[in-house]
Design goal:
By secondary structure, the protein is of the alpha/beta class. The chain folds into 2 domains: 9-174, Glutaconate Coenzyme A-transferase, CATH 3.40.1080.10; 189-430, Glutaconate Coenzyme A-transferase (3-Layer(aba) Sandwich). Helix content is 26%, strand content 20%. The chain has helices at residues 9-12, 32-43, 84-88, 99-107, 138-144, 189-199, 214-222, 238-245, 270-276, 287-290, 293-296, 333-342, 397-406, 413-424, and strands at residues 21-24, 50-53, 72-76, 93-94, 115-120, 128-130, 147-152, 163-165, 171-174, 207-209, 230-232, 235-236, 261-263, 265-266, 282-284, 302-306, 310-312, 317-318, 321-322, 325-326, 347-351, 363-364, 373-375, 382-385, 388-391. It has an 8-stranded mixed β-sheet, sandwiched between helices. A 7-stranded parallel β-sheet has the order 4-3-2-1-5-7-9. Helix 4 (99-107) packs parallel to helix 5, helix 7 (214-222) runs parallel beside helix 8 (238-245) and helix 13 packs antiparallel against helix 14.
Length: 433
């Protein structure tokens, strides 16, 4: 805290005015102390019509709740579990956008940013701070915001990459609340089988992108015998950290950022956050860099691994909604699908269990009414389930149907085959692969 003047959270949020658009740093690094202070002003009747923007957030989300209707209105770029019920009941909203473009909402002036509220590391000797675990589009928000407030937290790791001068902020708030963590998910037998199928498609020396959860962890386990992998991703978690520490990931085959592990945001155990602190092998960058398909494609053999809620027989990938019910967001899936497809030797993988937890097929004849297409059928490449992997690139609609049915759950194949016949006619049965 040396040589910096800090104010209380209540003092800091006095600069917020009714009607303001507020950006929140996201994921594990949400500035909850400022949100709580805003709630106190709202409860006192001092504020109305505040709009909140962010990637997905962890922890309490009062800015999305019915009790603050007319006072707070959440319009996030991705829907996490903490805001999902309120988005689907209309008390909060969702702004769909591919993540690499999200920063352009601010930099291009499409979306106003009156106040940026972010959480940062302790300043270094040059007075620079790091956004730590959540660079995402927060850097852009801080750049253009009329007012910027930073919560300086010693628990935020100082991550190399895109740094900000502490002098950019209109005020600084000191807080020692630990960052929100998420312990590694344990893969099921089904997920382990999917992980093996994905790993079989990944060559030594590949540059990989994958996220958080049981399925990415299963892929990581199956990659333990690979060599010289690289990381260029929007996020990574404990599964990838294990590969780095085991020497499987060394980045030696990357063309850009050789030897560096590149990401834009993180969520995981405290071990992940500690790893990136003052680590010269980690580069935490603006989402405009990590998710730009043109930049992604500069590395050879990029393999992106993403998931789906359902996939229809033509290859359309729904990944953000269950029918009309918003579940998550477009995220960076299409960014990396296109970036990996442009990469020399690259490939994109959409991996998921063949059935939901309720026993419903995720490979469907047609998408649910209202379902959002995140990856268009013209972009789709490999589809992987526990029953195998099929490449839809260069395949016709009828050929795709046959391929996808071959990796559906065995008990669902007959019904899917019948639906394909009804759709395509008798010639469908003459298709040979």
């Amino acid at each position: 805290m040396t040589n910096y003047n800090y104010v209380s959270a209540d003092e800091a949020v006095k600069m917020v005015k009714s009607g303001d658009h507020i950006h929140l740093s996201s994921i594990a690094s949400v500035p909850h102390v400022l949100i709580q202070a805003l709630c106190r002003r709202a409860d006192a009747g001092e504020l109305r019509d505040l709009h909140f923007h962010h990637f997905h957030t962890e922890g309490p989300a009062p800015y999305s709740e019915e009790r603050y209707s007319g006072i707070f209105f959440d319009q996030g770029f991705f829907v996490g579990a903490n805001v999902r019920p309120n988005v689907n009941s209309g008390y909060a909203d969702y702004l769909p956008i591919n993540l690499w473009i999200s920063q352009k909402l601010y930099r291009g002036g499409t979306l106003p940013c009156d106040v940026a509220m972010v959480q940062v590391s302790l300043p270094d000797k040059q007075g620079m701070v790091s956004l730590g675990t959540s660079i995402d589009c927060s850097l852009a928000a801080v750049e253009v915001a009329k007012k910027a407030i930073a919560v300086v937290n010693p628990n935020v790791p100082f991550a190399y990459g895109d740094l900000i001068s502490a002098d950019r902020f209109d005020c600084l708030v000191y807080d020692e609340t630990p960052l929100i963590t998420k312990e590694p998910a344990v893969p099921s037998e089904t997920e382990i089988a999917i992980g093996r199928n994905c790993a079989a498609l990944i060559p030594d020396g590949a540059c990989i992108q994958m996220g958080i959860g049981a399925l990415p962890n299963a892929v990581a386990v199956s990659l333990k015998d690979h060599k010289h992998l690289g990381i260029h991703t929007e996020m990574f978690s404990d599964g990838v950290l294990g590969l780095i520490r085991d020497g499987v990931v060394d980045g030696s085959c990357k063309k850009i950022d050789k030897g560096l592990n590149v990401a834009s945001f993180l969520l995981g155990s405290k071990d992940v956050y500690d790893y990136i602190d003052h680590n010269t092998r980690v580069l935490m960058k603006d989402i405009a860099y990590t998710n730009d398909p043109r930049i992604i494609s500069l590395n050879p053999n990029v393999v992106s691994i993403n998931s789906a809620i359902e996939v229809d027989l033509t290859g359309q990938v729904c990944a953000d909604s269950i029918g009309t019910r918003i579940f998550s967001g477009t995220g960076g899936q299409l960014d990396f699908v296109r970036g990996s497809s442009l990469s020399d030797g690259g490939k994109s993988i959409i991996a998921f269990a063949s059935r939901t937890n309720k026993g419903k097929s995720k490979i469907v004849s047609v998408l649910n009414q209202g379902a959002g297409v995140v990856t268009p059928r013209a972009d789709v490449n490999w589809i992987v389930t526990e029953y195998g992997a099929v490449d839809l690139f260069g395949r016709s609609i009828q050929e795709r149907a046959k391929l996808l049915i071959s990796i559906a759950h065995p008990d669902d194949r007959e019904a899917l085959d019948r639906a394909a016949f009804e759709r395509f006619g008798p010639h469908y049965y003459q298709i040979s692969l």
